Amino acid sequence: MKPFLLLASRAEDDAAEEEYESYLRFGGLLPAELHRVRLEAAPLPDIDLDRYSGIIIGGSPFNSSDPEESKTPLQHRVEKELSALLDRVVAQDFPFLGACYGVGTLGRHQGAVVDRQFGEAIGAVPVTLTADGRADPLLAGLPEKFDAFVGHKEAVSKLPAHAVNLAGSPTCPVQMFRVRTNLYATQFHPELDLAGLLTRISVYRNAGYFPPEEAEAVMDSVRPAKVDAPGTILRNFTARYAR
After folding, report:
1. Which one of 7, 57, 142, 152 is CB 3.0 to 4.6 Å from 98, fit for a cystine?
2. Mean pLDDT, the chain, as a whole number?
3. High-pLDDT (> 90) share of the chain, %
4. What's the domain count of the chain?
């Protein structure tokens, strides 16, 4: 089997390693089947799409809707590299799944409005599939309504006409969308379980998602959550596109 490619941009090793392990676990992949490139560490090398079964983009500290003048040189580089890669990925309808940051990258690339209107605090939210979502193969086996972990400052407030909305929540109408046949993005985190979320709350306590002194209270607030459905999306993705 050709490996999948994970494009990551978390500079904090604890969060980066746990993210990688979660994609392996929920995707049902062996380490040799998931090649990771850490975009924050070095420029994106030339990517030969023929070497891979599909591409996954993990979460990121970056927000595509940040004012251009406030973005760091690193963020500008990463965005430029991902945009160039997406030119090829979209043209070929190459299997792609972006989680959280994938909404900003694929969404902006395709003309969606990505802004701060529908940001959600860290926690579990109820996600409901649309009629298109219920018919989509990547969501096979999921209930029509399920809880998922979120925590994001930006979101899609308007999809382009050619994109298909697959799921939404009461506080964020676009939780998952599809472009063409094989290009997907989720606003929620299909790779996150409770342990992973607790790690991120600790690691990113100073990232502006909540007052740093409230980190323990945020952890306590998410501990009762029962989130077990979203990982099915990753398994469906790897099973559908492995080649």
Report:
1. 57
2. 95
3. 92
4. 1
